[in-house]
Write a structure and sequence with these properties.
The protein is an alpha/beta fold. 35% of the residues lie in helices and 20% in strands. The protein is built from 8 helices and 11 strands. Strands 1-2-3-4-7-8-9 form a 7-stranded parallel sheet. β2, α2 and β3 form a beta-alpha-beta unit. α5 packs across α7. The radius of gyration is 18 Å and the shape is globular. The relative contact order is 0.15. It binds zinc ion (2 copies). The site of one zinc ion has 4 residues, from loops.
Length: 273
């Protein structure tokens, strides 16, 4: 099984466990490596990002765990950089995950993944209930941010599907939606050919969703584009560290991926899945 995870959170941001508790769980699961991806400081109001004055302590904590557990597991200090990130010295981190969690509308900023109510309010008030326009706004912001950043990893590509399990908010199987996604996906693949797309089980763990991000049609398109993938769980607690990895690995194989990238020897390396 895929025995690594580059997308994890701790009490330094909105996670429930300490970094050391996460390391110990990863070791007991037989992980070869573990990456921490603290939510970057933000320049907008939020309840989950690391406070700027804690960034140095975060880095030092991860570095000391790297040393303490070096005979058992490889540890990496990464960062999940939000499109509204506040200044932080990116050279201090082993890798960067690029993510969009908010949409800027005239007069108000909406979280994409905070609650179903906030999502529906945004679609209804700002886009006259038109999910396609909402989706276009999200993907264009994602494209703008990623093409400027060219991150090592692209976080939860279709986050707008979070509350859409079984299509309960909008129909993501219609050609209009899938075509729109592929237009932006192609632009991102062109701009960021070396970035790794994560197959992220976070909403399967938190909300019981049936499928990971991104949706299967996106995974198939990524394979056609010859892009790289990794498997992660966006873990906010020790019990989510390898959540549904086996099932998702099978799903990736179904989409014709025979390798995924994991943190190994100081960088992301391809391993057979
Ligand atoms: Zn995220
Ligand atoms: Zn995350």
């Amino acid at each position: 099984m895929f025995n690594s995870n580059c997308h994890t959170h701790t009490v330094f941001c909105d996670g429930n466990n300490t970094a050391e508790e996460m390391v110990q769980s990863a070791v007991s699961l037989g992980f070869k490596s573990l990456g921490f991806s603290v939510h970057s400081p933000m320049n907008i109001e939020n309840s989950y990002a690391i406070k700027p004055n804690l960034v140095e302590e975060y880095i030092n904590t991860i570095l000391s765990l790297k040393e303490k557990y070096k005979d058992k597991i490889e540890i990496y200090n990464g960062i999940e950089l939000d499109s509204n990130w506040d200044f932080v010295d990116l050279s201090k981190f082993d890798y960067i995950i690029g993510s969009v969690h908010h949409l800027h509308c005239p007069g108000r900023i909406y979280a994409v993944d905070k609650s179903i109510e906030e999502t529906e309010e945004c679609v209804n008030k700002e886009f006259d209930g038109d999910w396609l326009s909402y989706a276009k706004c999200y993907y264009s912001e994602l494209c703008r941010f990623l093409c400027g950043l060219k991150p090592d990893v692209i976080g939860h590509f279709d986050l707008i599907e979070k509350y859409n399990n079984k299509g309960k908010l909008f129909d993501s199987t219609i050609p209009e939606y899938q075509l729109l996604v592929k237009v932006y996906l192609d632009r991102i693949c062109d701009c960021c050919p070396d970035s790794i797309f994560e197959v992220n089980t976070g909403a399967m763990f938190r909300l019981g969703n049936d499928v990971p991000y991104p949706a299967q049609f996106i995974l198939k398109h990524l394979k056609q584009r010859n892009m790289k993938i990794t498997i992660s769980s966006d873990a906010h607690s020790t019990d989510a560290l390898d959540f549904e990895f086996e099932r998702v690995q099978a799903l990736c194989k179904n989409c014709c991926f025979d390798e995924a990238y994991m943190l190994k020897g100081g960088k992301f390396e391809a391993v057979k899945i």
